[in-house]
Amino acid sequence: MTKTLRGLLGLLGFLLVWELFSRSGTVPQQYFPPPSTVLLRLAELLGDRNFLLDVIASVLAWAIALGIAIAIAVPAGLLLGSVRSIRVATRAIIEFLRPIPSVALIPLAIVLVGAGPETKISLAVYAAVWPILFNTIYALDEIDPVMVDTARSFGLGRGRVMFTVALPNAAPFVLTGIRMSAAVALILVVSTEFLAGGSSGLGNFVLDASSGAGRMDLVLAGTLVAGIIGYLINEALELLHKRGLRWSTVDREAA
C-alpha cells in the first residue's frame, strides 16, 4: 500500500468518524456540522471572490513573514554558530525572548506598527525566526571538525570555509527549520487576523463567521482552507528538500 493511499484512507476514516459523530446528536449540528455540510460550504466559498481575496491576503502575509524570518535567522544562526563569544554573550537575551508567546505581543505590535497587515507580519516573523535560528546553530555544531580542519589546511579562510563547508552541511538542517517555521508563520498570521481583527484574511473571515449568527459551517470551512494551505506548503518544502538536497542523509524528525 502506497504512502498516498494510506493517507487517503486515513483521511476518509477521519471524515467518516466526524460525519457519524456529528449526526449522532451528541452535539447539535449547528455547533458541530458534519463534513458533508462543511465541504459543501467550502465548495461554495471557492467561488466567492471576497473569500478568495481573504485567502490571498493571508498567504501573501505568510510569504512575506517567512521570507523576512529566513533573511534574519540564517545569517544570525551562521554568526552565532561560528563565533562562540557572540553566542555566549547573546544566549541570555535569546533564551528570554524565545519562550514569549507571539500572540501575547499583539497589543504591543499594534501600538508599534499599527493595526494593518504589518501587525500579523511582524508577529509571524518573530515566531518564525526561532526554529530556523536554532536549526542553523545546531547544524554548525554538528559539522565534522575534520572537514573544517582539512579545508583550512588547504589555505581557505573563515569566509570560504563558511560557504564551501559549513553552508552545504547546514542546508538540510536549515530547510527543516524553514519547514517548521512555515507552519508557525501561517498559524500566527491567521491567529493574529482572528484576535486583532482587520479588514482581510482567513482569520478575519473566521471571526466574522463566528460572530452574530455563529455560522460554524463557515468557520470550519475557513479552518479547513487554512489546514489545506499548510499541508500544501509543507509538501512543497518536502519536495524541495528531496529534490534539491538528494545527497542529504539527515534524519528529519519533522518529515
TrEMBL record:
Q: Does the keyword S-adenosyl-L-methionine apply?
A: no
Q: Which of UniProt's keywords are assigned here? A: Cell membrane, Membrane, Transmembrane, Transmembrane helix, Transport
Topology of the protein relative to the lipid bilayer: Multi-pass membrane protein
Task: Kindly state a single biological-process term from the GO annotations of this entry.
Answer: transmembrane transport
GO CC annotations, alphabetized = plasma membrane
Spell out the Pfam families in the cross-references: BPD_transp_1
The transmembrane residues are: 55-80, 92-115, 121-140, 161-192, 212-233
| Location relative to the cell | Cell membrane
Q: Which Gene3D superfamilies match?
A: MetI-like
Q: Where is the ABC transmembrane type-1 domain?
A: 55-237
Family classification: Belongs to the binding-protein-dependent transport system permease family.
Q: What is this protein called?
A: ABC transporter permease
